[in-house]
Every structure is written in structure tokens, then in C-alpha cells.
Amino acid sequence: MSPASIALLGYLAVLSILAHCLFPSSAEVDFIYNDFHNAANLSLDGSATVLRDGALQLTNDSNKIMGHAFFDSPVQMVRGNAVVSFSTAFVFDIVTVGSGGGHGLAFVVSASKVLPGATAEQYLGLLGKNNMGNSSNHVFAVEFDTVQANGLLNETDGNHVGVDLNSLVSNVSEPARYFTDDGERNVTLESAEPIQAWVDYDGGAKILNVTIAPVTVPTRPRRPLISHAIDLLPIFKQDMYVGFSASTGKLAISSNGTQGMREFVAEVASLGRMRHRNLVELRGWCKRGQDLLLVYEFMPNGSLDALLFGRSADKFPSPATLLTWEQRMTILKGVASGLVYLHEEWEQVVVHRDVKASNVLLGADMGAHLGDFGLARLYEHGADPATTRIVGTLGYMPPELTVTGKATRATDVFAYGTLLLETACGRRPIDPVTGVNLLRWVRDHGVRGELVHAVDERLAGCYDNEAARLVLWLGLMCSQARPETRPSMRQVCQYLDGEEDIPEEAVLLFSDADTVDFGSLTSLTWSSCATMSVGSLHGGR
Ligand SMILES: *[C@@H]1O[C@H](CO)[C@@H](O)[C@H](O)[C@H]1NC(C)=O
Ligand SMILES: *[C@@H]1O[C@H](CO)[C@@H](O)[C@H](O)[C@H]1NC(C)=O
Ligand SMILES: *[C@@H]1O[C@H](CO)[C@@H](O)[C@H](O)[C@H]1NC(C)=O
Ligand SMILES: *[C@@H]1O[C@H](CO)[C@@H](O)[C@H](O)[C@H]1NC(C)=O
Ligand SMILES: *[C@@H]1O[C@H](CO)[C@@H](O)[C@H](O)[C@H]1NC(C)=O
Ligand SMILES: *[C@@H]1O[C@H](CO)[C@@H](O)[C@H](O)[C@H]1NC(C)=O
Ligand SMILES: *[C@@H]1O[C@H](CO)[C@@H](O)[C@H](O)[C@H]1NC(C)=O
Ligand SMILES: *[C@@H]1O[C@H](CO)[C@@H](O)[C@H](O)[C@H]1NC(C)=O
Ligand SMILES: CC(=O)N[C@H]1CO[C@H](CO)[C@@H](O)[C@@H]1O
What we know:
With 541 residues, the chain is of the alpha+beta class. It is built from ten helices and 26 strands. The strands form seven sheets. Strands 1, 2, 4, 5, 10, 17, 18 and 19 form an eight-stranded mixed β-sheet that branches. Residues 33, 38, 40-41, 73 line the site of one 2-acetamido-2-deoxy-beta-D-glucopyranose.
């Protein structure tokens, strides 16, 4: 006897910001909240709770319960003698657990955060038998209802979207579906598939539009499901509260639903919440079949790869830019700090899996921003298994990855080591013309005791010797064959900042094989390790 649990997955999280990019609205009020993580801004009651992944869960799988979530601050909805235009978008899913189902949820604009007389089941936690239709309710709702209540509430069928004015007898109601250029498609609200909803009100024309579509539909349907003349002036007071309400109550036969898609959306929403000055901000996304389109913040100065080596074959050819030693140090420290955030400071460990110069993007101030993080995790959540592969780029992949196929923080450290060498030397990890392997090349310089001779010749000696030795030595430390011998990204930061001295009597272990061909390696023998040591080396500042 356990009905549905209803969750809103990041109301206006990344997904709906994209919707705003694609469909700029003329609304005077946009309800934009990045996610529900800051529960401090929400008044929750009943069974409502904010989950760890930032989703707002309004009910759980208990029968006949209700939950409400209202944003704390009221919104001025009436100006002069007119209702303001408003617009919102959110993603929800209705997951049926066990042997129950229903009832549904509603987007609510109400004069009060407390809804006296509200009951569960078909009343969606909004109203009750005793106050239905009372004009002093001042409640406007768009309901997503999974049950037809015995014809009592003028509902079209058991899977519908309706507009409620002070009453749950819907003013307008339509079976849940969306329109395409060549017809219409049904939407099953209770399918556990995330569904996006848009509610737009034109205060001047007094027209309310409601549109829904599964999040897998790449663009918002042009034609709304409901487009109806509605005067909200008698309903609205000047200040109104915006939120959601849901209830459970139907007993029905149910199925498990597609947990995978829900996890996928939660994962993208979680990536969208990541904020660090050395990470590119994810602004939006959409899923088109198996393709994932990600919208990132714009980085005016392009990638580190293009700056170091220039672009010729590209649509936008550009010559290499001579980055100064100081600029390179700032970029390298920035990337390291971004990786510490992913590895240790975010709410869960995120392994980047594809650290490389072309994923390091430069902002207007030449600050480094790491892009494309977390993609591999997304692929684990819901992409075609055929596209799931070892993510990584030749020259940046440590030997153990090709053996175990398992990316760890230490595989990121290895790739970062390559980035250190590449940036300091101004040479690609594997030279496209000569095939020279950069790691081996730098190592040979080290063995000959002339590490700093490996520094980019284009700098013509304009660099700090100690700092250059530190960067190259650290690059080698990170590129060691055994993952457990590499430093952590936090240690890397401490070495680069001079907060900690690099081990003076270090012996570095490399597998000979890994300097030859990263790609075709199938097994490793530690006995063939080359060893190397550097007598004394101090961290430069
Ligand atoms: C959430 O609360 C914080 C602190 O109370 C406040 O600064 C912020 O503006 C609020 N955000 C919204 C969307 O209300
Ligand atoms: C569901 O929510 C109700 C009301 O808040 C609570 O009493 C009950 O313990 C919850 N059930 C579960 C399984 O969390
Ligand atoms: C409507 O609600 C108000 C406030 O709760 C109450 O005073 C009034 O009696 C109600 N009207 C009817 C017709 O029930
Ligand atoms: C819908 O609302 C309008 C006012 O906006 C009202 O005139 C009309 O009677 C309502 N229709 C129904 C079926 O409730
Ligand atoms: C039910 O809704 C339809 C339109 O959706 C409307 O024409 C009709 O008047 C409504 N009936 C009641 C009893 O509100
Ligand atoms: C959509 O659902 C309605 C019933 O709600 C049904 O009559 C119709 O055939 C369905 N259309 C498609 C394309 O499945
Ligand atoms: C509502 O939909 C109609 C029909 O597509 C459109 O002409 C109108 O601009 C829309 N209004 C709003 C506020 O979205
Ligand atoms: C529901 O999921 C559970 C575990 O995830 C599984 O054991 C069970 O067979 C599933 N039931 C149905 C009806 O798919
Ligand atoms: C090195 C480089 O390309 N710097 C540019 C970074 O972007 C700013 C703003 O677009 C330019 O002013 C710099 O010249």
C-alpha cells in the first residue's frame, strides 16, 4: 500500500536555464533558482524534504500524505491594477514505488504559505472539501494529476494537466501530451521519466500557457498544451508565495520506473551546481537521443592547447601565442586547484578522466578553467553502453588505465603530470611528427642532470630556474608508473605554492613500456622499471 513519491529534480536547475537561453521570455518575473540545495530559502512542511542530490522530494511512498515547499520570500504579483507577466520552468518526476500510485503534484501561487483545510489524495495538498471554490482561498495552481477522481473534479482522464483557480475543479484540463510539427505524443506523468514543465502568463493579454514534454525532447514544443484566457486578478493578492504541493493516495498496480534516467538528470544537475574559479561553468544541457549537448560559459581566450601550439587545420586558424613563464605557472596552479576541488572538496569524488591541454580553457584574465569534467560519470548514468569506453587521450593515460580500465584520482594526477611537462616544455606529449615521447625526453634530460634544458626554447631563458626545475620534477613525479607513488593533487598544489618542499632524495619509478606505446600496452612488468634520482631539489616560490 505504498503510493508514489514525487520529486522535483532541480527546479530551474541547469536544464531550465538552457530553456531560458533558447526561449527568452518577455516575462516581468522569472522564478529562477539554481537548485533546491539551499533549503534555507524554502519553507517545507509535511513529507517534503530536500535530497542529497539537490532534488526536492515532496512525498515519499507512504499512503495519503502531503508535502509543501514554498520559497520564503513573497513575489509582488500585482502592480497597479494588473497581474505581472511571469514565467517558470521546472523538471519533475513521479516515481511509483511498491504497489501504489498517484496522486500528483501542483505548481502553486498562493497568498499564504500555509494551506489550511488542505487534504491529501485528489486535493493534492492544496485545498479540502470544506474550502473548495471559496474565493478567499487566493490559490492558483497548475496540477499534474495522475488520477481521475470519479468525475467529481471535471478531470479529463487519469493522466492530465489542469489549471485550478481557488478550486480543484479545473478551469481547464487536458490529457498529458505535447504537440510536435506532425502531431502529438502522449506523456505518462507517472512513468518516472523526468518531465519538464513550463508555465507562462502574459499579464497584459491575460493568457496562461502550460507546456510539458519529457526532458529527452530536445526543444520546447512550439505549441503549448494549454493556452487559455484566464484573469488572475481576482485570485492574486499583491504579494504571493510560489511553491509546490503534492499528495499521495491512490492504490494501484505499479511498476518500478526508469531509475536510470532519474539518476542521469540528478547527475547533470549536480555538475551544474559545481562552482569553482578554475572550472568552466556548465550553463545548460539537453539530451538529443544518445547525444548530450552541454552549454558552457564562454572562454574568450581559447584553450591552452591552441595557445601553446596554435591551430592550423581548424576552421579558425590561429598562431601559437608565446605564454610567459608566469602565465604558465598561473595556469598550472589554477588547473591543480580545480582538480583538488573535484577530487576532495566537492560533495562527492569526481575523477575528471580527460585532463589535457585542450580541456584547459582561458578566461578573459587568462585564468585557467578546466572543462569537460564529470562527463564519464554522465555516460555511466544512462548513455548507450556502446558509447561507454575508456575515456582519455593518448599520451595522458597512465599504464594502469589500459590494464584495469578503471579511472581513479591517480589517473588524473598522471594526466596532470603530462600537462606540467607539456606546458613547461612547449612540446606535445607525443610529437605528431617525430613521435618523440615527452615523458621519456624530459626523463633523459633529468638523468643527464640538465632538467631545465627541457624548458620551452621559445622562452629564451626568461624563466625562474628553480621554479622550472620544480615543475619538471613534479611532472615526472606525477608520471610515475605506479599510481600509489604519485602525489595527490593537494600535495601538488602545496609543492607548486612552495608550502611544502619536494622530497629531496626521491627515486622515481617508470615502466619502460609506458614510454614506448601507451595504447597497445596490455600488461606491465614492474621489473623493467627504470629508476632515477635527483640529489637535492627545493620547492621554488
Ligand atoms: C536565499 O537565501 C539567501 C540567504 O538568506 C539569500 O541571500 C538569497 O537571495 C536567497 N535566494 C533566493 C532565491 O531567495
Ligand atoms: C514519509 O513521510 C511521512 C510524513 O512526513 C513520515 O511519517 C514517514 O515516516 C515517511 N516514510 C518514509 C519511508 O520515509
Ligand atoms: C470562505 O473562507 C473564509 C475564510 O476561511 C470563511 O470565512 C468563509 O465562511 C468561507 N466561505 C464559504 C462559503 O465557505
Ligand atoms: C474559468 O475561469 C474564468 C475566469 O477566469 C471563469 O469565468 C470561468 O467560469 C471558469 N470556468 C470554469 C469551468 O471554471
Ligand atoms: C469542465 O471543463 C470544461 C472545459 O474543460 C468546461 O467546459 C465545463 O464547463 C467544466 N465543467 C464544470 C462542472 O466545471
Ligand atoms: C494517447 O492517449 C489517449 C488516451 O488518453 C489515446 O486515446 C490515444 O490513442 C493515445 N495516443 C497515442 C499516440 O498513443
Ligand atoms: C502562449 O501561446 C500562444 C500560442 O502559441 C502564443 O501566441 C503566446 O505568445 C504564448 N504566450 C506566452 C505568455 O507564452
Ligand atoms: C523492481 O526493482 C527491483 C530491484 O531494483 C527488482 O528486484 C524487481 O524485480 C523490480 N520489479 C519489477 C516489477 O520490475
Ligand atoms: C593572450 C590572449 O589572447 N589574451 C586575450 C585574452 O582575452 C582578452 C579579452 O578578450 C584579450 O584582451 C586578451 O588579449
